[in-house]
Amino acid sequence: MMWWWGGDHMGAGGWIGMVFMILFWVAVVVAVVYLVRYLLTRPGGDRWQNRPPDWREPGSSASGQGKSDALRILEERYARGDIDQEEFQRRRADLMS
Questions:
Q1: Does the pLDDT of residue 74 top 70, yes or no?
Q2: Which of 37, 39, 47, 56 is the most buried (most CB within 10 A)?
Q3: For the chain, how far is it from start to end, CA to CA, in angstroms?
Q4: Following DSSP, what letter does each residue of the chain receive, concatenated?
Q5: Measured between alpha carbons, how far is 2 from 12 in angstroms, rounded to an integer?
Q6: Residues 1, 4: Cα–Cα separation, whole Å
Q7: What is the Cα–Cα distance from 72 to 58, expressed in whole angstroms?
Q8: How would you label 65-95 residue by residue, b for 16+ Cβ within 10 Å and e otherwise?
Q9: What does the longest C-alpha to C-alpha distance in the chain come to?
Q10: What average pLDDT score do residues 60-69 get?
Q11: Residue 79: phi, psi to the nearest 5?
Q12: 78 and 88 in contact (C-beta within 8 Å)?
């Protein structure tokens, strides 16, 4: 019996082991927090948040803003040569109506 360690049943080895167990779990929690912070702040890690300023859910458009976006895209396609003048005029007339 170890009466000189305070008279309890754990002794010095038990207390030291308990302190190391607490330090181990604190280190695990700190490591998880740093891992999550690293994954969220690394370059390119938040690509899902990089949206155009006027991003909206599919199917929801502000009045007038949807048409101007569509017209801008149509003009870009015409400028690139993806569509000819006749198709551009026809689609622009559809968008303006």
A1: yes
A2: 56
A3: 96
A4: --GGGTSSSSHHHHHHHHHHHHHHHHHHHHHHHHHHHHHHHSTTTTGGG---TT---TT---TTHHHHHHHHHHHHHHHHTSS-HHHHHHHHHHHH-
A5: 10
A6: 9
A7: 18
A8: eeeeeeeeebeeebeeeeeeeeebeebeeee
A9: 100
A10: 60
A11: -65, -35
A12: yes
The burial class, CB within 10 Å (0-12 / 13-18 / 19+), for 40 is: exposed
Cα dihedral 50→56→57→59 (10° resolution): -150
User: What pLDDT does residue 6 have?
Assistant: 55
Which pair of structure tokens corresponds to residue 61? 């458009």
User: Under the phi-then-psi rule, with left for phi > 0, alpha for psi from -120 to 50, and beta for the rest, what region is 59?
Assistant: left
Say how many CA atoms lie within 13 Å of 57 toward its Cβ: 2
User: For residues 95 and 97, what is the distance between their CA atoms, to the nearest angstrom?
Assistant: 6
The residue type of 71 is L
* Residue whose pair of structure tokens reads 């740093």 in the numeric block: 34
